[in-house]
Amino acid sequence: MATIKVPPIVPSPAEDCEQLRKAFQGWGTNELLIIAILAHRTAAQRRAIRTAYAQTYGEELLKSLDDEISGDFERAVVLWTMDPEERDAQLANEAVRKWSQSNLLVLLEIGCTRRSEDLYQVRRAYHERYKLSLEEDVAAHTSGDFRKLLVPLVSAYRYEGLEVDQKLAKSEAKLLHEKITEKAYGNDELIRIITTRSKAQLTATFNQYHNEFRKPINKNLKSDHQNEFLAALRAVIRCITCPEKYFAKVIRNAIDGLGTDENALTRVITTRADVDLKVIEEAYYKRTSVRLGHAIKGDTSGDYKDILIALLGHDDV
Amino acid sequence: MATIKVPPIVPSPAEDCEQLRKAFQGWGTNELLIIAILAHRTAAQRRAIRTAYAQTYGEELLKSLDDEISGDFERAVVLWTMDPEERDAQLANEAVRKWSQSNLLVLLEIGCTRRSEDLYQVRRAYHERYKLSLEEDVAAHTSGDFRKLLVPLVSAYRYEGLEVDQKLAKSEAKLLHEKITEKAYGNDELIRIITTRSKAQLTATFNQYHNEFRKPINKNLKSDHQNEFLAALRAVIRCITCPEKYFAKVIRNAIDGLGTDENALTRVITTRADVDLKVIEEAYYKRTSVRLGHAIKGDTSGDYKDILIALLGHDDV
């Protein structure tokens, strides 16, 4: 369930463009007006605004935004304004070019939480923008087990039907348990199962695993010392079986502790606000007993805070 | 360039259906009429005929064909009548379920000679028909180096632009040469390059290889004893750099020697007749000094021969 609020009567794209242009002109920028418009439009409406804006003013809306605003606020507004597939392509490209554990998460996330058709659209947008394929870039910038895991994840076109083969779930749960017990985390079969089976099938396999071996698979994927590959495997499994808990955890990590990880916070809010942010909010509350809006207000400020709160649907339209 | 001939005035789908129905009824089947209609319609026209047929007679055209005709003729007519993506999905599925060197070729061929968008459509058709993903099936039925090669090939969404990075071509040609010299044919980097780079980039890399190491890469991929994996790598490279020569060779192998490999012959003719069979014909002639139509007439007979010749565009409409 999405969180954004769209007014009952939506102005025409031409009207929205005119207001945005006003927000950009004169002394200083009217950030609140930018939020009042863009944070309250669906992806299709934002697309129509961008098209009308380019036609009317001969300049890309994203370019104008880039000139007028800055910092975390700019990043949130720009990412949100983009088409979902274009945004994911950009996030993936940034992640590929700057290798780190948290950037690795971005690739896993895109590979595992998008619908199959949407992931394909991301790959298309990637071609268009970067003149390379997503899997080509991921493969060229990774190696070893990480490559073995990430390349099929970003190339996947998982079957999305709900059919489950219980016999297969049983045999593959056993295979997974065997490999995990041997600590063969990069094993070909383990990676094959996780990267190619449908989400319904994998859920059945993980349930089977839990029943038969009396521990959830993710508990068996913990190690005493920090192991980035194991963390990646756990993230994949969480993305597949309970994306809302996964995203709630990314937000918790971004907010908790000293300082805020604005990049991660912005990413989750802008990519999920018109998908399932409502469910993520609930998962966050269940785990922390703190309302997400409250937590964000406490950890961010200014226009950046305002856009996030607006995307959460907590401002007054 | 396609070979099929479509009459200047094409009957309506309803008229075609009526004629087909006539061909099926009464004593014996009128095979020539079936060929006269189906072998002379484009993919879109065949699709329209199938839709009209199902609406009018409450039965799938493919089912009626299956009831009325048989053997190699049936297989050719049915494969040809299908949508290209549906046909490829079926060919891939048959290949996956019956592992052999020649079936391996089918998967390589589909992965490497289809346009990126078309390969995606094949994966979509595969979901619909088999309730599994193509890569899932390929991964589950293969292992070792073959899996490492085939899974990314059937999951690829290669960039199709013509941009070439010459520096990259140089460094990757060197890397390929290094691995080939070490006989490390299943090396991760070698497979990464071949399965993810765009065809334009790969062509530049292979040219660079030829220039710098004074031998075409495929010559360096030959071994004294038969090696199926090396043969697969050579086929991939041929599919990418000169698909018409690759297909001409598949046809040669199918026709030459004792007996005919009808499966391979039918596959190439039905999948390429509305794509590039004309160019394949030329490549065949160049290599054998025999006209492809002549070779097929000499090696096949009856209705099967007639449909192949019709798809080659050599019959009188």
Summarize the structure.
With 317 residues, chain A is mainly α.
Please explain how this structure is put together.
The structure is a homodimer of 317-residue chains. Chain A has 317 residues and is an all-alpha fold. Chain A is 72% helix and 0% strand. Chain A is elongated and about 65 Å long. The relative contact order of chain A is 0.12. Chains A, B: One of its GO terms (biological process) is response to salt stress. Chains A, B: One of its GO terms (molecular function) is calcium-dependent phospholipid binding. Chains A, B: InterPro entries: Annexin_repeat, Annexin_repeat_CS.
Q: What labels describe this entry?
A:
20 helices, Annexin V, domain 1, homodimer
Largest sheet data of chain A: none
Distance between the termini of chain A: 19 Å
Shape of chain A: elongated
Structural class of chain A: mainly alpha
Rg calculated over all Cα atoms of chain A: 21 Å
Beta-sheet strand percentage of chain A? under 5%
CATH architecture field of the largest domain in chain A: Orthogonal Bundle
Order of helices and strands of chain A: HHHHHHHHHHHHHHHHHHHH
Protein name (chains A, B): Annexin
Pfam family, one (chains A, B): Annexin
Keywords (chains A, B): Annexin, Calcium, Calcium/phospholipid-binding, Metal-binding, Repeat
GO biological process, one term (chains A, B): response to heat
